[in-house]
Structure formats: C-alpha cells, structure tokens
TrEMBL record, chain A:
Residues 23-213 form the Electron transfer flavoprotein alpha/beta-subunit N-terminal domain. SUPFAM superfamilies: Adenine nucleotide alpha hydrolases-like. This is Electron transfer flavoprotein subunit beta. It comes from the Bacteria. The lineage of its organism: Bacteria, Bacillati, Actinomycetota, Actinomycetes, Micrococcales. The keyword Ion transport does not apply. It comes from Arthrobacter hankyongi.
From TrEMBL, chain B:
Keywords: FAD, Flavoprotein, Oxidoreductase, Transit peptide. Belongs to the acyl-CoA dehydrogenase family. Residues 137-227 form the Acyl-CoA oxidase/dehydrogenase middle domain. Residues 21-133 form the Acyl-CoA dehydrogenase/oxidase N-terminal domain. This is Acyl-CoA dehydrogenase family protein. SUPFAM superfamilies: Acyl-CoA dehydrogenase C-terminal domain-like, Acyl-CoA dehydrogenase NM domain-like. Its cofactor is FAD. The keyword Flavoprotein applies. It comes from the Bacteria. Signal peptide: none annotated. Residues 245-386 form the Acyl-CoA dehydrogenase/oxidase C-terminal domain.
Length: 260, 393
C-alpha cells in the first residue's frame, strides 16, 4: 500500500505571528518556520499504519518555498520513506483552490491508496484543501478523524463532530484528514535523522508537473485578502465581584456574547 | 539571523547556528522538542518532590538515541562529539539532573564498559543500556575520598577465581535505580573496575535525601558488603586510576556544553522577564543597569559556546587533551553559575520561586561546580599544564 502524507511548513505558533501589511500574507520572518504540528500527527498516523502492515510505504509531500524542505526532512526523520517537494517561485501566495490543484497534479498517477492530511493548517486555517483534493483526485474523502485504521480495502476512523464522534468508513483510495486529537507524533530519533539524508527526495517545478505557470500564485488566486487588521491590543477584562449574583452575571455575559 | 518579531537571543547574536551542520541542528531540535514536550512541564514538581520517573525517562531517552549516543556499535547511535554536546546542552537547559542521568549512563557507566570491558560485558550490557532498559551508575567517590580518588578504601580481594568487594561509595548518581554499577576498587594490583549487577547479594544503594541541589536526580550511597563477583566481572582493560579518569573526561566534555544550557535557559527567562516587568513606570530591560547585566551575560554565554564548539571539533579530530576539557569545564560551569545567580536578581522575588527555572538552575549548578572535578581541581590541572608544576599536594 502507498500512503502520501501532506505536510506544510508554517510559522511556529509559539512565536509572535504577524501579517505583512504590504503583501497581506503571513510575515514568514516573524516566527521560526516549523512543520505544522497537525501534519506531524498526519505523519504519525501514516507511520502507525506502516508499522501495523506489510509493504506499506509513506511519501511526504509538500508545496512550499525552498526552506519547506525542512518539513520534509522532519517527516523523513520520523520515518517516512520518501518525499516530494513542489517548489516554484510562481506558487507564492496560492490559495486553497490553487494549492489543491497543484497537489492533485503531484499526487495523480502515482497510485497512492491513501492520502493523509491535517484537517487545517495553523496559518491559513481554511480547512478546505483535503476536501478539494479528494474531489480533484476523484477519491473518497473522510475528514476530521482522530483515529485512522486501514483494513481490507477501506479506511475507517472516529470522525469528530460538534458534540462527539461518529464511526466513519470509506473505500480506498481515499483522502483523509486528521485533527489535533489524533495520535501524538513521535520525536525523530537520532538514527532517523541520519537515515533521512539517504532517503529519496524529489523536487518538482510547476512545469515538471505539467501545469501552466500563468495561473499560479497570489496574482491569480480565486480568493483575495483585501485588508488585514492587527488583533486589537488586549484590554482589561471585566471583573465580577461575587456579591451572591456572580453566577448569574457570568451567565448573562456569556449569553450576551452568544457563547452559551 | 534574527526573527523580525522578537529581538535575537544571545546565541543568535553570536551567530552560533551558522557553525552547526544540518544534522547537528536536527539532533538539537529533536532533543529540544522532547524536553519541551515531556520534561519541562514537570520539572518544578519533580524538583520540589525530590523525585522523578527516571526509568520511564531512561526508556524515552534511549528510544530517542540519547544514551551512549557518542559511542559506536552495541546499539549506540554513533553521533559526533558536537551532536553529543548539543544534546547535553538541551537536556541541561531543562535541568542539570536530566543531563546527569544521561551523562552518567552514557559517558561514565556505558563508556567504562565500552572502553575497558570484555566483549561479553559489552554484549551483555551496552544494548540494554543504550535502549534505557538497564540503568547504570558509576561509583568512584567515597565518603572520605572525592577529589583524591587514589586514596580510595573500597577494596577488592581475590578469593580463588572470585573477587570480594567491601567498601562504601558516596554521591553516586543513579545508584538506587541502577541495574548495573561500575565500581572502582583498590586491589593488590592497583585500582580496577568491576561490573556489578545491583542484585548481587551484599550490594545495596540507599538514596541520599535532604539535597538542595539536583533534586530531579537520584543520588545514592553504594554499600558493598562482601559482594562476591566472578573473575569475568572485572573490566579487563582498566588497569589503573587512569581508566576512571578517562571516563570522567568523557562526561566532563558533556558538561562543558550542558552548563551553557542551564545558563541559556536562565538568560532567556530573565531577558523575557525584564522586557515584561515594569519598574518605575518602564520595562526593567530599559534600564542601563539591567542592560549591562544582560550584555555581560550574553558575552559569557556566547564565549562559552565558542569554546565548547572548539573543544568539540578538537574531540572529533581525536586531538582533545584532558587539560583542554578542564579549560571548558572550569570556565563554562563557573560562568553558568554566575549567569544563573545574576538572572536570579533580575527576577527579584520571583527569582526564588520554582515557578521560574532560574533558582532551580542556580542550585543545580552548585553540584555541577563540584562533581566531575571541582573547579579548584580543574584550576590546578590548568596550573600544572601552564607551569609544569603539580600543586595538588
Ligand atoms: C549531586 C552529585 C552527584 C555526584 N555523582 C557522582 C557519581 O555519579 N559518581 C561519583 O563517583 N561521584 C559523584 N559525585 C561526587 C563528586 O565527584 C565529588 O563530590 C567531587 O569529586 C568532590 O569530592 P568531595 O565532595 O569529597 O570534596 P573534597 O574532595 O573533600 O573537596 C572539598 C573542597 O576541597 C577542595 N580541594 C580538594 N583538594 C584540593 C586541593 N588539592 N587543593 C585545593 N583545594 C582542594 C575541593 O575543590 C573542594 O572545594 C557526585 C556529587 C554530587 C554533589
């Protein structure tokens, strides 16, 4: 069985993430780039399937700038077998529609039985790419999983819903996405780090994928960010002093904010 | 070099990462993430309780590849001296006790068997110790002989083919949790090393309590009461005190990096604190006195790091002399403890709380200053190297 795991490099959520007002995209200099944690969980899910089965190979795939190769190296160090890096200057600023098109072109024709992605990236947070990709590849889609198991030609798992989960199943080939509740990712072992260097890593341009350059990138994207506003500075909260009615006051506050 | 959002750290200012290879950076990163995920959240509690889940940690560290990581073969990861140093640095940035666990396991107990042991001893112990399944300790110091181990009283007497060990070892890291103890003893034929399974009758290892330093580390006494061992328990290649001193040299090398980890954590904590904390209506970091403290500490941290990396590159070329390790241990531990104490002042009252890592590091570094050769002893080593005159006695 062949599994592809989609990984993305994002600004570290520990850092002070900012938007660049000029380009209205994430200021990638504002925080260290790291592999998105949710993608580490996707890699973990793939590796667990690999370890549970025979003849399973895992390929990590990313579309991103030159430095994004670090995210692939981490996936390889964790235990993925090979990696594909779609790297092309014209891709900068792509939206979910464009990204899914490029990823679909990279994945198509490689006989993947299962594509595993994170349900959303911590920077863009559209949570749309996995579904779009499934559509473009003509594969079944199973999103928001917290567990992933493969058996006898199908993939199944617990799909998170607003108030619990449902057991869901789809025939292979399929695209699945995992949530931050799926299995905790392993730390790359020292041996894995050294072995990663010797694993195949393919770099592809748009032309090599057979895609026209003229439709790529922020200039041609389907969605536009017209404006960005910095998050307002944090203001002092409301202090409720308990004179016997604090419970009611808190409940009213939450109700007014439509939180309950 | 720096991120646009926050000012650079001291080591970023020095451009240290540019001196490291991709592999070294990746190994550092995985240890850092492991510490962030599995160790840092619990340290204050472990330190306060004076206990830690050492067996579990040993297995995790073993699975990562951190135990005996600089040794070749027998399930060891075979990493470079620099990678080993960087791992020690990250572990000690979490806590000196965690680095001690790893140093004693890899550089003292495993190294002793790896460098001086028989093939059978290596096969029996090293793979299990590399995986963290077996924990080792290293018994050299005695209640009355620390800096001068040549006076040791622990004695191994030959009885037919067997050896019978009697004596007491003191301040032994990992002692009570070890499956195997490398014990150094005087014999009629000079100092020899013995591989002692800790379930051998007559061996016991009561834990030392009431410590105010390295509380997240197990420290024990080893009591050897007529411990009978077969001839095969002796380390064949260790024929004098030179052998345990060779092991200590390995472990000290890790401390040259490790101590800087503790210092880095303190400096980063204090810098962040000073930027946030307002005194007299402006951030503490905006006062010249504070900036002088931060600048001086950054200088010492960066210089210490350059020294550590230099020593590591020498070690990789097999050109590192013991007195050069003394330069690193003396300087870097001395500066680290100064940095920790200075950072403590920046945190004011918060500086004495376990809510911040600073006092914990400062207290831990008191042990680091003393073990693996006290700063006085390393001063004498350097003095002898410079003058040719030993001043130990
Ligand atoms: C937490 C902890 C863990 C340890 N773990 C281990 C371990 O795993 N295995 C192990 O074998 N040991 C271990 N040790 C012991 C450590 O190595 C010794 O404490 C150290 O060697 C110093 O010995 P001592 O305590 O007997 O001090 P002493 O040797 O009595 O020294 C007391 C003071 O005298 C100074 N001094 C000694 N000789 C001279 C001299 N010639 N000139 C000038 N000053 C001198 C010393 O520098 C020191 O300041 C550990 C210690 C600690 C605190």
């Amino acid at each position: 069985m062949k599994i592809a795991v989609l990984v993305k490099q994002v600004p570290d959520t520990y850092g002070d993430r900012r938007m660049d007002p000029a380009t209205r995209t994430v200021d990638r200099g504002s925080a260290d780039p790291v592999i998105d944690e949710i993608n580490e969980r996707a890699v973990e899910a793939a590796l667990q399937i690999k370890e549970a089965g025979d003849g399973v190979t895992v390929t990590a795939v990313t579309m991103g700038p030159v430095r994004a190769v670090e995210a692939l190296r981490k996936a390889l160090a964790m235990g993925a077998d090979s990696a594909v890096h779609i790297c092309d200057d014209t891709l900068a600023g792509s939206d979910a529609m464009q990204t899914s098109e490029v990823l679909a072109a990279a994945l198509a024709g490689r006989d993947f039985d299962l594509v595993i992605a994170g349900n959303e990236s911590t920077d863009g947070r559209t949570a749309a790419v996995p579904a779009m990709l499934a559509e473009r590849l003509g594969m079944a889609q199973l999103t928001f999983l917290r567990t992933v198991t493969v058996s006898g030609g199908s993939v199944s798992g617990e799909r998170m819903t607003g108030n619990g989960y449902v057991e869901a199943q789809a025939p292979l080939p399929a695209v699945v996405s995992v949530t931050e509740q799926s299995a905790e990712p392993r730390f790359p072992k020292f041996r894995g780090i050294m072995a990663a260097k010797k694993k195949p890593l393919q770099t592809l341009t748009l032309a090599e994928l057979g895609l026209p350059g003229g439709e790529a990138g922020g200039e041609n994207s389907w969605s536009r960010v017209l404006d960005v506003t910095a998050r307002p500075a944090r203001t002092a909260g409301t202090v409720v002093t308990d004179d016997g009615t604090a419970g009611t006051q808190v409940a009213e506050y939450l109700a007014a904010a439509k939180l309950i | 070099m720096a991120r646009t959002g926050t000012p650079p750290t001291a080591l970023e200012l020095f451009g240290i990462d540019g001196l490291l290879s991709d592999d070294e950076l990746a190994i550092r990163q995985t240890v850092r993430e492991y510490c962030d995920g599995k160790i840092r959240p619990h340290l204050a509690d472990w330190f306060e309780a004076g206990s830690l889940p050492a067996r579990e940690l040993a297995r995790e560290l073993g699975s990562l590849g951190a135990l005996g990581m600089h040794l070749e073969g027998y399930g060891c990861a075979g990493m470079s001296a620099t990678a080993y140093g960087l791992a020690c640095l990250e572990l000690e940035a979490a806590d000196s006790g965690i680095r001690s666990l790893v140093s004693v396991q890899g550089s003292l107990a495993m190294y002793a068997i790896w460098a001086y042991g028989s093939e059978e001893q290596k096969q029996e112990w090293l793979p299990r110790m590399a995986s963290g399944e077996a924990i080792g300790c290293f018994g050299l110091t005695e209640p009355d002989h620390g800096s001068n181990p040549s006076g040791m009283r622990t004695y191994a007497k030959q009885d037919g083919d067997d050896w019978i060990l009697n004596g007491t070892k003191m301040w032994i890291t990992n002692g009570s949790i070890a499956q195997v103890a490398v014990v150094w003893a005087a014999t009629d034929d000079g100092v020899r090393g013995f591989v002692v399974p800790t379930d051998t009758p007559g061996f016991s290892a009561p834990e030392i309590k009431k410590k105010l330093s390295l509380r997240a580390s197990v420290t024990s006494e080893l009591v050897l009461d007529s411990v009978r061992l077969p001839a095969s328990a002796m380390l064949p290649e260790a024929t004098s005190l030179r052998a345990p001193l060779g092991c200590l040299n390995e472990a000290r090398f890790g401390i040259v990096f490790g101590a800087l980890g503790a210092a880095r954590e303190c400096l980063e904590t204090a810098t962040a604190y000073a930027r946030e904390r307002e005194v007299f209506d402006k951030p503490l970091a905006g006062f010249q006195l504070t900036q002088e403290k931060l600048a001086n500490m950054a200088l010492e941290l960066g210089k210490g790091m350059l020294l550590a990396l230099h020593l590591a590159r020498l070690k990789e070329q097999h050109a590192l002399a013991p007195e050069q390790v003394s330069l690193g241990k003396l300087n870097n531990v001395r500066e680290a403890i100064r940095i920790a104490r200075e950072c403590r002042t920046i945190l004011g009252a918060n500086g004495i709380s376990l809510e911040y890592p600073v006092i914990r590091h400062a207290n831990n570094l008191e042990s680091v200053l003393t073990y693996e050769g006290t700063s006085e002893v390393h001063t004498l080593v350097i003095g002898q190297a410079l003058t040719g005159l030993p001043a130990f006695r």
